[in-house]
Amino acid sequence: MTIVNPTGEIDAPFPRHSKKRKSSGYAPSSKYAHLSPLVDILEPNLICCFVGTNPGVQTATAGHAYAHPSNHFWKLLHSSGLTDRRLPPTADRSLPARYCMGNTNIVSRPSKNAAELSKEEMVAGAGDLEAKFREFRPEAVCIVGKGIWEAIWKYKMGRAIRKEEFRYGWQDEEMNMGKVDGKEDWGGSKVFVTTSTSGLAANLKPAEKEAIWKPFGEWVQKRREERGFMPRSEEGNAQQQ
């Protein structure tokens, strides 16, 4: 059984003789019908939008993104320079006004974990993402987890991604999301793939995760400077030059 300690890090498993936690499998949406999906945090022309898997039970209950205390999302936003302080989950809806960033998920329905989602609904969710980004046109999208990118790749390419084809960081231009052809030609949102922020994702050390996130934080900071972006009040009164 894997344990998350009070600092949010993953402790080593118990010895083999201890009882193992039974991993969950697919669960229908009816199991969590009492929980509401998260509201997308989107507006036109953001610098970036984060793409998570789906709301966990605690996140859906709280009504704010990445609300589980073991999740490192808000910590990594701060350490990578995407935010100037470590924000609480309750500040999620201020991201567009304060930082020109947004948030959405590839699957909207809540579940205990990603294992309770089907591969089919993950791939279908990639199509929904394309439509969202076609409408709102963020400069870039940040895919928060390898599994999300695998589903998007399968949607776009019609096959599973090969091991040697996967990489963290910026992806090829052909993989841009939300492209528009025709009179309103638009090349789509650039794609940056980063690590999962779940406290249970222990395949990489904290320092390794920060190293993967850092280039994206630096890019967003640069784009804010180039745009002359200034935070605006959350009531919508623009302070942007």
UniProtKB/TrEMBL annotation:
Transmembrane region(s): none
Keyword Zinc in annotation: no
Domain of life of the native organism: Eukaryota
Keywords: DNA damage, DNA repair, Hydrolase
Region (Disordered), start-end ranges: 1-27
InterPro entries hit by this protein: MUG/TDG (IPR015637), Uracil-DNA_glycosylase-like (IPR005122), Uracil-DNA_glycosylase-like_sf (IPR036895)
PANTHER family, per database record: G/T AND G/U MISMATCH-SPECIFIC DNA GLYCOSYLASE, G_T MISMATCH-SPECIFIC THYMINE DNA GLYCOSYLASE
Protein name from the UniProt record: DNA glycosylase
